[in-house]
Amino acid sequence: MEPKKNPQLDVRRNSLLYFFVGMTLVLLMAYLALEWKTYYPDDAWEVGDLKVDEDLIEDATILKLKIPEPPKPKIKTPPVIDIVEDDKDIEETVIEAIEPDQNTEITAIESIDVAEEEITEEIPIVLVENAPIFPGCENEKTEENKRECFQEMVQKHIRKNFRYPDPAKEMGLQGRVSIMFTIEKDGSIDNVQLRGPHKSLEEEAARIISKLPTMKPGQQRGIPVKVSYSLPITFKLN
User: Fold this and answer.
1) Under DSSP, is residue 226 helix (H, G, I), strand (E, B) or coil?
2) Rounded Cα–Cα distance for residues 94 and 171 (Å)
3) Per-residue pLDDT tens for 89-127?
4) What is the mean predicted confidence (pLDDT) over 153-165?
5) Domain TonB C-terminal spans what residues (predicted)?
6) What's the burial of 161, exposed, middle or buried (CB within 10 Å: 0-12/13-18/19+)?
């Protein structure tokens, strides 16, 4: 035997009515929320209604400014016009032309003094016009022969005065010493510069160069000049 429910106790009996009532309330609340208007409190006040104490009212300070007067225009003094009578003789200044013409005399070239230019810089021996002349090479005719004789006499001087330093022998030192010196305008040797593997070898090379004789100086355009010369001296133990 199946149990029977009481129709009055059925929960779903009025569910549709409750649904519509709920929807109506929700829509009404949404409408009121959207249409609800609020206003800010009125804090405005009329400025004209305010009463200010007369003691607080101050008179505005009046400043009197003196405008400087504009500068007066400078009136230039008119030039004095000297009226000369017609019968008075006037000396006119004659301006002579200084440009040469066919009647201008030409100065002879021999009468023009040419200042000698002094050359202070050193010129390498390979670039100087007339190389220094080693004693004994004066009789060479051409400039090329004089240069070759210079090289040969310098090498001969080195072989004649060469002496291996004893300290260098004991330490087994050997190598090449690069030498550069200047043949001055009076033919003397100066400004000797050396670079070698050891001081003792450099001192021996300096001693050999110091014994070079005085030479006839090199010339550039007929003027004595300083001439630089460089050579190596090789120290080698047998």
Assistant:
1) coil
2) 93
3) 656 666 666 676 667 676 666 665 655 556 668 889 888
4) 91
5) 149-238
6) middle
Print burial letters for 118-155: b (CB count within 10 Å at least 16), e (below 16).
ebeebbebeebebbbbbeebeebeeeeebbebbeebee
Q: Identify whether the C-beta of residue 135 lies closer than 8 Å to the C-beta of residue 176.
A: no
227 CB neighbour count, 10 Å cutoff? 26
- What lies within 8 Å, CB to CB, of 189 at 6+ separation is 181, 182, 183, 209, 210, 212
Contact in structure between 232 and 170 (CB atoms under 8 Å): no
What whole-number distance in Å separates Cα of residue 192 and Cα of residue 202?
11
Closest CA to 146 of 129, 124, 122, 123: 129
Q: Are the C-beta atoms of residues 12 and 5 closer than 8 Å to each other? A: no
Q: Which residues contact 234 (CB under 8 A, 6 or more apart)?
A: 175, 176, 177
**What is the structure's pLDDT at 222?**
87
| Token pair in block for residue 21 | 């009532």
Alpha carbon distance 77, 36 (integer Å): 92
Which residue segments constitute the domains of the chain, with CATH numbers given?
123-235 (3.30.1150)
Q: Would strands 175-183 and 227-235 be described as parallel, antiparallel, or unpaired? A: antiparallel
Q: What φ, ψ does residue 169 adopt, rounded to 5°?
A: -65, -45
